Amino acid sequence: MKILPIENLRGEIKILGDKSISHRSIIFSSLANSTVEIENFLHGADCLSTISCMKSFGVDIEIVGEKVFVTGNGLHGLREPKNILDAGNSGTTLRLLLGLAAPQKFLTTFTGDASLIQRPMGRVIQPLTEMGASIVGRNGNKNLPITVIGAKKNLRGITYEMPVASAQVKSAIILAGLYAENPTTIIEPAPSRDHTEKMLAAFGVEIEKVGNAIKIYPAEKLFAPEKIVVPNDISSAAYWIVLAAVTKNSVVTIKNVGVNETRTGILDVLKEMGAQVELENLRESGGELSADIKISSSKLRGIEFGGAIIPRLIDEVPILAVAAAFAEGTTIIHDVGELRVKESDRLKAIVTEFNKISRGSFEATATDLIIHGGKEKIFSACKTYADHRIAMALAVFGAAAGGVEIDDSDCVKISYPNFFEVLKWEK
Ligand code: S3P
What we know:
The protein has about 425 residues and is of the alpha/beta class. It contains 13 helices and 23 strands. The structure holds shikimate-3-phosphate (S3P).
């Protein structure tokens, strides 16, 4: 696919429902005993993988137009899947469902696509095993395929200090903790997205947060709301926020964006870089904050950041690297080694492919990313590594510079199926 340069972005851009919240809305509703209507669900391939896996556990899930209706059989009503569950490209599906499968008294086997089978799963298997689960996987219990062998007795709650800040690992332990005999405490090195904690609290689960520690009490039953309205995905909005910031004569509004503070690191960074970003109509729904985001063409400057802010913008590093390439001066992003184990090795993808558009702009160490802004940008043919966020960041980079050709546009279906239709949309 060829993307040509654009400018003068003006008007309102529509984005889709939040991927993280969509996954959780399906999984948690599946554990209640009533029918839950889910509005603004993200019908991306990852969330559809979650639906398909939950159906294999015997949950009744119906897609009616844009809406999804989930009717669970209760916390203890999951059934043994008759076949192998395929999590596709979705780390969230796999890691959360490993946590859910761990306490069940039946066998569950998982697999996934070419990317997911490479990704590290020891980080989930290890704490779940400490809780008493029996889990085996390829490569010394580190990779897919993975089988959760039915638990013979109830899991025990543990205190677990997570070596990496990961909402997926945290959520897996929380889900297992719901079924444990005693409370579980999880300590995070830095706060990761807290949609699980917020939504489970809304489902009546007793869950406490003290500093970076989360304490989860075993549950008897989950009480679902009649309806869940998923806010729009700030990780999808990020592409238009950066495109509007770095192109001339642009003023764009994106409505109903989830602005949970564990996800808004990108806004903090862009503001520090000098971007004109405003939040309007701040409101709360189902424990999650949302707002309209207004962004205008901005003159950006390079900055240095890392540490606790990283989990708050982990999926936005590729698009922030694009923003930094248009800034004056150098941007240094520390502590992003986790990007090496996302849907692709994103640091490698950025250095190899983004440099084709702007030579000598991007450098990486094992854990840091350095971007030299303001260099020349040319039309180039780039590879996406079948990674949705690399594809979208490359598309924005090309659109804001001299154009780009990407080898695979299909992979955006993971999180933003109509991304290219929106990019084409003439206002
Ligand atoms: C997600 C958590 C993040 C993020 C992923 C979605 C989630 O992964 O990168 O896209 O929904 O919990 P980690 O928690 O493993 O960093």
